[in-house]
């Protein structure tokens, strides 16, 4: 997994740390204990490659919610229309646009 993570970090450069910060700051699963900043790395590892298929913020919302349901209990994750997931999707979409279309 370390080799895969290094490859993903290299491929996505600053976007990796940006999405990691977004998830850690908004902390949808309540696992931010201030010093465990890599807690959402497994989710970032899966979310970033999937962003290539996203064409809208709503598609990013679907991707994020699907991955959280995959990594955590879906009842604990809750509804994708929860404002926290919408904010995550909004911020990740914005970061993705800047990364994938730097001159747009």
Automatic annotation (TrEMBL):
Gene3D superfamilies reported in the protein's UniProt record: Apc36109-like domain
Top-level lineage group: Bacteria
The name this protein goes by in its record: Uncharacterized protein
